[in-house]
Amino acid sequence: MVQHKYNVAVGQKPSSIAVRPVSLTQLRSQLNTSDLEAARQAGYQAGLLEAHQGAAKALDAAVDRLDKSRQEALDALSTSTVELAVEIARQIVRVEIQAENYDLERIVRGALSQSGLGRGEATIHVCPADHKRLSEVTFRSGTEVAIDSTLEPGDVHVQAAQGLLVREVSECLASVREQLLEDLA
């Protein structure tokens, strides 16, 4: 057996020394196995950390997308609710107008009041069916009721020297719709 001398640097003075007979092949195998295990463990921990960080980023991105989608759905639902409510109102008004369940005289008097005419002369334009309903109603002097076949039942146009006041059911519903949508914004 050949003896070799090795210089070994030690950080502190050893308290005891034990000599174990080990072949170079066994020593290399042990060193490689422990180095490989340490490298594998370090790689596993680094991969685990990277996977957790990636999963956290993916989860944050998914939450952001979900929040955005939820807000878009809520906005769309609110808008759809307004549209549905106005359409329901439109259908109810249409049915009530067809059944002549509306106070046409009050509508006309309200339009005259809103016109700011005072006691001035005015011509009230209504559809033929509404003209027939107003034939027995007495308005202030200087107020005439005229047929306008382009108007829908329930619509009233007040023509005076100051201008034209338009009061139409469809425009009232459109105004309600716009106000509701504006309130949502």
Q: Specify the CATH homologous superfamily of the largest domain.
A: ATP synthase, E subunit, C-terminal
CATH topology of the largest domain: hypothetical protein PF0899 fold
Largest sheet: 4 strands, mixed
Tally of alpha and pi helices? 4
Give the total of beta strands: 4
The shape is: rod-shaped
**H/E topology pattern:** HHEHEEEH
- Share of helix among residues? 55-70%
Structural class: alpha+beta
| Uncertain residue ranges | none
Strand fraction: 5-15%
CATH class of the largest domain: Alpha Beta
Give me the Rg, rounded.
45 Å
Please list the strands of the largest sheet in the order they lie side by side. 2-1-3-4
Task: Throw out a few tags for this protein.
185 residues, alpha+beta, hypothetical protein PF0899 fold, 2 domains, four-stranded mixed β-sheet, 4 helices, 4 strands, rod-shaped
